[in-house]
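Re-run with default settings, no changes from the original entry. Doing this only to confirm the output is reproducible before filing.
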Amino acid sequence: MALYTAHFWKKAPFVKLLLAFAAGIILQLHLQPVLYIWLILLLTGLVCLTGFLFLPFFSRFKFAFFTGLAIAIIFAAAGGILAWNKDVRKDKDWLGHTYKNGEAIIAVLDEPPVEKTKSFKADANVQYVIRDGLQIPVRCRLILYFRKDSASQTDSLPLQLSYGSKIIFKNPLQEIKNSGNPGGFDYKRYSLFRGITYQVFLKRDEYEIIPGRTVNPAKQVIYSTRQKVLNILRKNIPGPKELGLAEALLIGYKDDLDQSLVQSYTNTGVVHIIAISGLHLGLIYWLLALLLKPLTRNKKTKWLRPLLIITGLWGFSLLAGAQPSVLRSAFMFSFIVLGETFSRKTSIYNTMAVSAFLLLCINPYGLWDVGFQLSYAAVLSIIIFMRPIYNWFYIKNKALDFIWKLNAVTLAAQILTIPLSIYHFHQFPLLFFLTNFLAVPLSSIILLGEILLCCISFIPAAAMLLGKALFWLIWVMNTYVEQVELIPGSLWDGLQISISQVVLLIVFTAGISYWLMEKQKQGLYWGLASLFLFTIFRTASFIKSNQQQKIIVYNVPQKTAIDFISGRKFQFVGDSDVLFEGFARNFHLKPSRILLRLSRVYNVQGFQQEGKFIAYKGKHIMLAGESISFDTSFTKQTIDLLIISKNPRLYFKNLVTALDIKQVVFDGSAPAWKVNYWKKDCDSLKIPWHDVSMKGAFVMKIN
């Protein structure tokens, strides 16, 4: 095994450098060391490496370990410095260091506005803050929401408002925050990784458009081309669901996707079809290689072939939005083309490491991008496992053999992506093989058909005919996926594993695979040891879940939602529509229940409710959703938790004469203007309060 490992590192040395580089990025995010620490480490590594170069030739082999350590320190420091520099909050010109509420802001739209249900949304770059008539240059990205008319919901934006438009406004910026519910999506960090820290909501009379535009010529070409492609698809492909999928398949435009359809693709394990990835770039590469093959016959034009292929791959990648998965594939295929051109075969692992390194140099925080993780895991899994799986069967018929090869790729890709998929999405589609069997080849045909549609769009009759054919193919694929989703037991949902369990599952898979393919017992030992540790961690997490006793008041905008938890059971109290409204339930409540491994019951042990009063596990809770009055002649009643919702008429000075209040919680349905008055009353009476809209969900643990 030692010889195999040494051979691997010799063939793919950049993997080590990538690991060190990624370690520096991770340390910077989680530990936040100051910049000079990284600079000291970088300088130390460079000095040591330079010193080793001056050693006698044979002494260098003796100190080879220290040379490798110095290089690792250099790359780790480089990763930390890049991550530090990418954090917009570290910039001295960051808006957050300068801005004060009420100051005017000049911003430039960084993309064409996209229509949402109640608004138009666009990312923007802030250029200046106006203070005392002076323009102070600042740096920051923010999200602009242009509200529609609340009555008609049909307002359109002014024609002048597009990519590159400048606007000025004075509305106070809102810092981007998380909902704060347990297990919820970390939207604040996600936005920060994109350089976005603020958002603002604007009505039509709350901003002015400044004459002139600030555009990046390359971006302008991309947006213009994307719009032309969208116009071609919208003109020739009928049906909103089919059109939305066609747009996503060809150029990664997802704003018109039907969300229920996306959920169906996710639940059946074919959502990768919607995301522009290696599958799409592979088809583009194959098509370009086929069309440009005649150039190889002439020595004078031979050099044009790799240039045109690489240009085509990167042009498509930029057109598709330059997502991490497509950029990774573009780098990979570019290296393959160059390798073919210069007749050099390099290690695919080294090629992958180089492509990942270049992507992380561009955006170090791409390391946390789910698409980035899954795309590399899928490619690595295909490289390792595709050939052994394909060799399970020998099929003489070329057409059937090609179909089996596609499905062997699908099966191989799942092996290393399953742990990551469970960690991020908390589910596993059990019938993924059944859906991929049809969806993968059919989506490839559709993608090639869409490219052909764009090429013949100048012939209206032919374009319309092809558009109807594509509509039918997409309808067949959508219907098939939706029908598979309806099969009982098609989805294993509600799965929860930690990052340490993900690592153990990957080590288990790698170890057992190494044992089976290379007949090495060390792989078996590593695999069994990892499985044993995984079982211990998993058992401990279930024991912890079975012992939990708590009350959670969720942060759900304009709704009341409370879970009373005993072990792995919970009872819900609040607005019943939250249980049935898809977004509110899935976004705000479901992540918490998956994290805590909960299932709903209608009468959890120890729960008693009489009107607005609830007794639970020795705690007395009061729900104040309407006006309250008390007879002060009776003995004060202790209230461990007072939950205020909606818009009741309450006066705390009167409440404390009848109640001994230990804790107040304002839920998401309480109006903000009134909550501010209640907070002042609580502060004057020294009553602890918690506003879920500001601080996130309130969790009371019960001993």
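The longest helix spans residues 398-425. The chain has 23 helices and 23 strands.
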